[in-house]
Amino acid sequence: MSIAFVANGAKNNNTKMIKHIVLLKIKPNILEKTVIQCLEAVVGLKEKIRGIEDIDFGKNNSHEDKNQGYTHGFTVYFKDEAARYFYLTHPAHQKVVKEHIEPIASDVLVFDY
Questions:
Q1: Cβ of 38: how many Cβ atoms within 10 Å?
Q2: Neighbours of 37 (CB within 10 A)
Q3: Contact, 18 vs 78, CB < 8 A?
Q4: For a tag on the chain, would you pick the N or C end, based on fewer CB atoms within 10 A?
Q5: Which of 81, 71, 61, 70 is nearest to 19 (CA)?
Q6: Nearest-CA neighbor of 93 among 49, 51, 40, 56?
Q7: In degrees, to the nearest 5, what angle opens at C-alpha 25 toward C-alphas 23 and 30?
Q8: How far apart are CA 30 and CA 101, in angstroms?
């Protein structure tokens, strides 16, 4: 296996873009339209929280069978670490977690770089 690490040329971690990857294990009997509503609520945070450059989401479509039950995910692209911190502590983010993510997800995996 070959792995490449890519640096974006930032002088320190405070000025580089941060990618916040969130994977969701959806609870049984949750309708796909409910999952989409959840993910659309996440995307709506871009208009509410400064420092978010972009948000995208999708459903797992890998044929490798290595998703370990995580079926949906989203990525939030932050301007820098300060923007990520602002997002994590922002009331709009906390509301989406409590009202949209927690009711449908049996588990959440977060990976930032």
A1: 23
A2: 12
A3: yes
A4: N
A5: 81
A6: 49
A7: 125
A8: 12
- Give the per-residue pLDDT at 24: 98
State the amino acid at position 73 in one-letter form: G
What's the pTM value of the predicted model, to 2 decimals?
Answer: 0.86
Q: Looking at 12-26, 36-50, 54-68, which range is the least confident one?
A: 12-26
Domains located in the chain, CATH noted? 31-112 (3.30.70.100)
Residue with tokens 């400064």: 50
Q: Which amino acid, one-letter code, is at 43?
A: V
